[in-house]
Amino acid sequence: MRVKICGITKPEQGKAIASFGATALGFICVSTSPRYVYVEQIRAVVALLPNNIDTIGVFANTSVEEITQIATDSGLTGVQLHADESPEFCQKLRVNLPDVEIIKALRIRNAADFDKAIAYSTCVDTLLLDAYHPQQLGGTGKTLDWQILQQFNPSCPWFLAGGLTPDNILEALNQVQPSGIDLSSGVERAPGDKDLDKVARLFERLGLGARG
Ligand SMILES: O=C(O)c1ccccc1N[C@@H]1O[C@H](COP(=O)(O)O)[C@@H](O)[C@H]1O
Fold it and tell me: Which residues lie in coiled coils (predicted)?
């Protein structure tokens, strides 16, 4: 299972989290977020990582041109689209970034929103389901109704996100079997400052060992 830890801002924390066993690190490229990082900061983290870690930039209603520039300059392996980007937008991005993983995040209120998510499954590589919050786009610490997710069965891989913590992760995974999980505020001391003890506890709970 893929494990993505999102909202990385500090190189040493990124390196440590990769060594605990994360398969992907996420960088918030949304300027209104307290976890916002710019290209040079992302590059400083990426420089300390082994090559097999996915590096995902999180964007919200940013233009195709700007995402392309930031992804290329930062050396990102993937982009996560976290706002109202359409399937057509994803197709345009694919043309510009053919070798970069495109992840479409959907903020789910109820099972009716699954149809919206499925509409993206042929034009992106991966879906990500996050909890809906009326004011915030993400990093809210709010959980989804995991039970309704048992009905969610897309044709592409998907990440479960939204309020996951070391304490609730096993309860979530007892109810749903996503291809990956994505945690941000649930493993933080403060926005953008990861709590390495919480990250270590997450991997212990998952039964996933540290990398050498
Ligand atoms: O973390 C942010 O500040 C953020 C801002 C704008 C869009 C997405 C953001 N974070 C993403 O939110 C989900 C869930 O976070 P949490 O675990 O509930 O704190 C995750 O995918 C983050 O990448």
Answer: none
